[in-house]
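Now for a sample.
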Amino acid sequence: MLNWNQVQAFERDGFVTVPSVFSRAEVDVLLEGVELSLAATRKVGDMPDAAGRSSKISLWMDTRDDVFGLVTRHPRLLNGVRELLREDVYHWHSKVMLKEPRVGGAWEWHQDYGYWYNDHCLFPRMISCMVALDPATQANGCLQVIPGSHLLGRINHGRVGNQAGADPERIAAILERMPPQYAEMTPGSVLFFHCNTLHASGPNTSEIPRRAYICCYNAFSNVPYGQKGHGKPESVVPVADDAILSFARQAKAAV
């Protein structure tokens, strides 16, 4: 799925944005899932930032037979992750991020491996895939990433306001030398990013929501020791390429 330039960009920068991975019609199905099934079947947590603004998150570790499970098992993501890690992977966890207009909060600078290291993963052989469901812009608090920061290694994390974040003193020094970039995305685009890539996001000061679906994968060579960790180390069986639209057609036929 990924071309040579995209693979090289990931290895150099620790992330790569791939446009139009999912169609407008597929994104609409996912947005319906956020509005309808998520509220009924998933627990939504509130993660306020230092200013008290609310960022909502719903996280799970299984791969259910709902529309979100279809994305997790979709070959457009799976093949890309396998290509970047050069080995097979399993589902670590998935989450929906909801940053509502005017009230959606910020996320502090952090690495995903800053958390997952404590789940007994020995190597940073883990990748997250963010699927944009709304336009992600600076105004509505899109992700910021620091190119090349995955090469810094794991940074110590602790409490930063109401969230867990990377060491603020070290972050300040990093930002002096490594300017961040805004990861603005159109709906259906996917950001693949390394688990050591430093990322953050600002508050949503616009009238447009920022909703995103994030699938996280771990390499089979990196199964945590001591029976810790998130998802079960089981092979992910890919779904058909048209699985999301087929799911929507079947749901409408059942009504």
User: Anything to note?
Assistant: The chain has one domain: 9-247.
